[in-house]
Amino acid sequence: MTHRIHNFGAGPGALPLAVLEQAQRELVDFQGSGLSILEASHRGPMYEAVHARTIEVLRELLDPGRGLPDHDVLFMSGGARTQFAAIPMNLLPAGGSADYLVTGVWSEMAVKEAQKLGTAREAYSSAANSHDHVPAAGAYTVDPNAAYFHYTSNNTIFGTQFDHVPDTGDVPLVGDLSSDILSRPLDAQRFGLIYAGAQKNIGAAGVTLVVVRRDLLARCPKHLPDTLNYAKVAKENSLLNTPPVFAIYLVGLVAQHLLDHGGAAAAAVRNEAKATLLYGAIDRSGGFYQGHAQPASRSKMNVTFRLGSEELTKAFLGEAQAAGMEGLKGHRSVGGLRASIYNAVELASVRALVDLMDDFARRHG
Ligand code: PMP
């Protein structure tokens, strides 16, 4: 039997075993072609079918029954971090200003990239509270003249997550959904732009999904490098140059797997159950485990918590590793522990972790 650990890594994160096995089966001889998808031309029919189907399934998952008719689905390179720059390059006109909700390390980085290129206002910052929460709807203002309004729907490092989609009126909403895309239903039609590195919920590192409302493409300045220009990439259906074919193929497999298992709505039910189990273990520990996030802002993707001392943290990590659990060390900027429970993390893995947490607290509490 294949040896598999419980993977709580923050990204690249767990992938569905069935997807890995399918990729393994198809690697050398893709569907009887005698070629690997890694060896096929990105302009040939074999890859083109993978590319088209991946976009089609993503459209269905993001907007069930409607398929996001007003948006283009793009595959880009350079990770979500490259999008921190590409977004203002494309959507922030000279003399304009953009709004940012700053709720963690990644949105701090995003606003800084925008400030290199123009004016970007922090419409809200949780920095003074160690980013232990996200603002409730109404706790921030939207500049009605902003070129766009940017937020990070799930803060991977601090373990906080928005439970609402900001209402920005006519200002285009831009969402970094890197760590919670397709983990729950979302009204994707409300977004001007959605982006996400694939390596947490939807596939492997190497490709970044960008979903952009078509009318915004008129803003993309002609002086941009073609590979960073949304209008150019959209016009060529992300085949302007050689795309990361294998990463896109894997996104296609993960997307199909999710669709076959009930889409984002069913994923949300599974994710809710996993998060409830984990937060339950924190809450009944009588302070032995301390959650970083304020309860109303708790993420259902990244559960961050601390133990009373470095020694206890080390001991816990050692026991977790011995029990086949990896990826639990918190990000260096927060410390403590972080359990990432993306779509592909099974309930059984969370049960194993919760059992260890209860047992460890009993022995050391
Ligand atoms: N945004 C968020 C919310 C993230 O979690 C990450 C990566 N952990 C990034 C952006 C940066 O992504 P990438 O490594 O793909 O550039």
Low-confidence region ranges? none
Structural class: alpha/beta
Topology order in helix (H) and strand (E) letters: EHHEHEHEEEEEEEHHHEEHEEH
Distinct ligand kinds: 4'-deoxy-4'-aminopyridoxal-5'-phosphate
List the quaternary state of the chains.
Answer: single chain
Tell me about the biggest sheet?
7 strands, mixed
Mean pLDDT: 97
Strand order of the largest sheet: 2-10-9-8-5-3-4
Q: Helix proportion of residues, in percent?
A: 25-40%
Number of beta strands? 14
**Spatial extent as radius of gyration:** 21 Å
Number of helices: 9
> What distance lies between the first and last C-alpha atoms, to the nearest angstrom?
37 Å
Bin the strand percentage: 15-25%
Categorize the overall geometry. globular
Give a verbal description of the structure:
Strands 2-10-9-8-5-3-4 form a 7-stranded mixed beta sheet, sandwiched between helices. Strands 11-12-14 form a 3-stranded antiparallel beta sheet, with helices on one face. It has helices spanning 17-26, 45-62, 79-91, 105-117, 230-235, 245-260, 263-283, 310-322, 347-364, and strands spanning 6-7, 71-76, 97-102, 119-125, 149-152, 154-155, 160-161, 173-176, 193-197, 208-213, 290-291, 302-306, 325-326, 337-340. It is built from 9 helices and 14 strands. It has 365 residues and is of the alpha/beta class. It is 35% helix and 16% strand. The protein binds 4'-deoxy-4'-aminopyridoxal-5'-phosphate.
Would you spell out the secondary-structure blueprint of this structure?
Layout (H helix, E strand, L loop, with lengths): L5 E2 L9 H10 L18 H18 L8 E6 L2 H13 L5 E6 L2 H13 L1 E7 L23 E4 L1 E2 L4 E2 L11 E4 L16 E5 L10 E6 L16 H6 L9 H16 L2 H21 L6 E2 L10 E5 L3 H13 L2 E2 L10 E4 L6 H18 L1
Parallel strand pairs: 1-13, 3-4, 3-5, 5-8, 8-9
Antiparallel strand pairs: 2-10, 6-7, 9-10, 11-12, 12-14
Helix pairs in contact: 1-6, 2-6, 3-4, 7-9, 8-9
This protein binds 4'-deoxy-4'-aminopyridoxal-5'-phosphate.
The site of 4'-deoxy-4'-aminopyridoxal-5'-phosphate has 11 residues, from helix 3.
